Task: structure prediction
Amino acid sequence: MTPWVQHELTEPAPLLDVRGHLVCPGWSRRPVFDANLECAAPGLFRRWRVKRWDYYGIWTPELFAAASLADLGYAGLAFVYVVDLGTGRHVEQTRIRLPPRRIDLPRSSETGAGTFDDSRLSVRFAVKAGAREVGVAAPSFDHGEGLFIDVVLDEVATPESMVIATPMGGDRFYYNRKINCLPARGQIRWGDRSIDATPNHTLGQLDWGRGVWPYRSHWIWASANGFLPDGRTIGLNLGGGFGDLSHATENALILGGRVHKLAHVDFEFDATNYRAPWRCTDRDRRLAVTFVPQIERVAKTNLGIIRSGVHQVFGRYHGAVVTDDGARVEVNELPGFAEEHHARW
Result:
């Protein structure tokens, strides 16, 4: 079978030309583009079309906690949620900010801070000297039980990440960086529960996205973060359903902080029953895993012409994946999630 040819980017360049088109589609192990979004989507309604978000997830043996800041052009969103991985209980809180007030987000995924603060929710992300700080204060979360996150993620231990620049036709594009398996240190408090995050059992992940998407959009994202029996970190980042992926996919095995690039992945799942097992295989026969869901989270937004619906399921991955140098890695009880998302935005 002929290997899937993908364009790996290694040289620094501007992301967009003066017309708002991608300079060079492809993938990289580190950010190589300057995200010059001031060139994106020229025209009267430019600011409404550019989408930006920072999303952090934190995996502990007991729970998954996530926080996100997003600027969709016509609205800003800050949301947090927690999933109890033992009982399946999940709680979330969303705050919406309308123009002209904006949510501050950095130009680069490598430096800067993102912030949101009001009387009910405070979220702050900051990148400093090889570490990523995630801070959340939500005193009204879960009927007043409260959610407080103070965690630092070690980026030095994860030198490579999955970066893609994907064309979507015309001046539409998606620039994304995902980092898996960031060792975490700090504390998460949810109601009367207090969990100490330590690097030997707690890992964080980042989804950093910038782009101009079609109004009707769809994507699938599957992610896993955990440890092998020998103590090495292992992660999966799999996705599809959007854009022109002929230059590169976002699919990768992340082993000990290093990216092993995978080709196109086929997802087999039941959209009428997301809790049924998912099957993920790639066309180079390097990936064959089954995801067994245990918990389903459904999130829907309806603001008239703006709608979003996501089915996110949490569970365990089983199977095997082959590294770039041909070594077979067994996957057993690897914690993760998978989601299907439809949006009109």
Remarks:
- The domain at 13-344 is CATH 2.40.370.10 (AttH-like fold).
- Residues 40 and 254 are 31 Å apart (CA to CA).
